[in-house]
Design brief:
Strand order of the largest sheet: 1-2-3-4
Length: about 600
């Protein structure tokens, strides 16, 4: 008997399948066995049907299944799917009806004779059309999502027809057409004129397709793209007495077909010039969203989802950014937020000043609800870490005399109240903190460093001892912008390392730091060339893409891989467009596509 590849046991019978396609049926009660060749190759799975006394048995191969009777040891029915569409899995639904899943993307319920089965959803007739990307074939759904996200290969963005998807492949079938027709009317009208360009369309498409990974990415990306553009506008306003600024995308944008320069040049091939200038023209509409405004009104705060009385909205941006803040959009569909802000679910990725205010709010809630000594002590520790020394002293002095920690808390309160930011006391306290950390009392050492405003040193020690999350939290709530970026940057690199391999969270953290080039690099390494290409286009539209040779080479690689992806979806026109702007390798791929299509 060859190596066993599967087995099934029911009652008095044990059935084994081997890699050579032989069935071995053992009668355990009668102590008999029989081997039967199937001549079908590797047996992937055998399984008895459910139900008492049911001796039906299916045998799964790469190219189909057989139904056997384990009592008579005979084959009853057989079905072949062909080696081009191998089966993924088979199981029983009822005592005589198996269900199969194939690589064609269909789940089929078979009849007992294996002659009839349900059909894939993309070939069915529907009385009422509906929008459901998951009811389409994988290839058609990905093509539809690509067309929803962007269409730079067309003269104008449109959803009226999907002629750019190769009709010869059958992807533009009635279900794809029904999907565009059954889009919500306001959403279908919004896609072509999305004021935030490609990034906003990608976010809406991700929500339509239920892709949580991309929803999180584009929410974060859109916020920090807007913030980076806003800072550019502030800088331009500072340089111009009249407060006017030229379109940032028309200045120093990276040209995808160039490694040596970042200026748009009239000597470029016509397609390249049209591409870059069209992005610049689209970004000009973004200027309309950035106008000089006063502090947010209560009505605006309601639209932003914040409480005007506590004014945490004032912490979302710096003072200069609030003076030159974002105007709230009007006349948008209900499903589009008036202003794109990050939800607290993003945690460490949220804007630093907002995160600090939110943590203070949480600490105030814990303070109001504390009822035990341990809760009070933890609140005091958090106040120290966040620089709220007066509150910490007050809580430490609340310790009851009967408590074993009364004397220690009193000494802690005296220390916290008497610390000065300079002088001999600071050196002494730093020495004591270092000794604590060296003797495995990390928490105490970190608190002492925070008391003397050495939060950066505290974060470095936490990272050295692999307390990465705690160091990131401390950096967000206590450090300046430059120091915070150093700590979070190291944390992001740690997450992307092979030992952790949490590149998605690393991408989000680099987005929060404005490291857009590093984001593209990580996305390409994660084989998400589609997201990387859309993100590069979004950066071009906002005018915030780094202008250097490395970014040019990286863009070439991204567009080349994206061209391969589009070609795999049979979107030939789109693939040739990206290959033509992807440098030498892209042009080689475009030539290969032209020869083989």
């Amino acid at each position: 008997m060859a190596a066993v590849s599967s087995l099934s046991w029911k009652g008095e019978r044990l059935v084994l399948g081997d890699i050579e396609g032989n069935l071995h049926i053992w009668d355990l009660k009668g102590k008999l066995s029989k081997s039967v060749p199937t001549h079908r190759g590797l047996i992937k799975k055998v399984r008895f049907g459910p139900g008492r006394g049911n001796q039906l048995l299916f045998v799964q191969y790469n190219d189909g299944i057989d139904l056997w009777d384990a009592v008579s040891i005979g084959q009853l029915y057989s079905m072949r799917t062909g080696r081009d569409t191998p089966l993924v899995d088979v199981d029983w639904v009822t005592s005589d009806k198996p269900v199969i899943i194939s690589t064609a993307g269909s789940l089929c319920l078979m009849d007992p004779n294996l002659k009839r089965n349900t059909s894939p959803m993309n070939v069915l007739d529907y009385d009422t059309p509906f929008f459901s990307p998951h009811a389409m074939s994988a290839k058609a759904a990905l093509s539809l999502r690509t067309c929803l996200q962007h269409q730079p290969w067309n003269q104008h963005y449109t959803l009226d027809s999907l002629e750019d998807v190769d009709e010869n492949t059958g992807l533009v079938d009635k279900l794809v057409e029904a999907s565009t027709v059954t889009l919500p009317r306001d959403m279908k009208a919004f896609f072509p004129k999305a004021p935030l360009g490609t990034a906003q369309r990608c976010l809406l498409a991700a929500r339509l397709f239920g892709d949580e990974w991309e929803v999180s990415f584009w929410e974060v990306a859109l916020f920090y793209l807007m913030k980076a553009r806003l800072r550019q506008k502030i800088a331009s306003k500072a340089d111009s007495p009249q407060g006017t600024a030229t379109c940032a995308a028309a200045q120093d944008v990276i040209s995808p077909d160039s490694r040596a320069t970042t200026k748009i040049s009239s000597s470029r091939p016509g397609q390249h010039v049209e591409y870059t200038f069209r992005l610049a023209a689209e970004s000009a509409s973004l200027d309309l969203m950035l106008v000089a405004t006063e502090q947010p009104t209560p009505e605006e705060c309601i639209s932003l989802g914040v409480d005007a009385r506590n004014s945490p909205a004032s912490t979302l941006l710096s003072a200069s950014e609030r003076d030159y803040g974002m105007v709230l959009l009007s006349n948008l569909p209900d499903h589009v937020p008036a202003c794109i802000l990050l939800d607290t679910k993003h945690d460490l990725v949220c804007e630093t000043s907002f995160y600090h205010s939110y943590e203070l709010y949480r600490l105030a809630v814990h303070d109001a609800k504390r009822s035990t000594y341990e809760q009070t002590r933890q609140c005091a520790v958090n106040h120290i870490l966040m620089g709220q020394t007066d509150h910490a002293v007050q809580m430490l002095l609340e310790t009851e005399p009967e408590n074993d920690q009364y004397l220690i808390d009193c000494l802690r309160a005296c220390l916290a109240a008497s610390i000065r930011s300079s002088g001999a006391s600071q050196s002494t306290i730093k020495l004591v903190a270092t000794n604590f950390i060296a003797n495995e009392r990390l928490d105490e050492g970190v608190r002492l460093l925070c008391l003397i405003r050495k939060g950066l040193d505290a974060c470095r020690y936490l990272q050295t001892y692999s307390h990465w999350n705690q160091s990131a939290w401390l950096a967000k709530v206590s450090l300046s912008e430059d120091d915070h970026q150093e700590v979070i940057g190291r944390f992001a690199d740690h997450l992307a390392s092979p030992s952790v391999n949490n590149k998605f969270q690393s991408v989000l953290l680099h987005l929060s730091l404005g490291g857009f080039q590093r984001v593209v690099d990580l996305l390409l390494n994660m084989q998400h060339s589609d997201i990387a290409a859309c993100f590069i286009e979004s950066c071009l539209e906002f005018g915030v893409l780094p202008a250097n040779k490395d970014m040019g080479a990286l863009a070439d690689s991204v567009f080349t891989e994206y061209g391969k992806y589009l070609h795999s979806l049979s979107m030939t026109k789109a693939a040739q467009h990206y290959c033509s702007i992807a440098g030498a390798k892209g042009r080689q791929l475009a030539s290969w596509i032209s020869q083989h299509d």
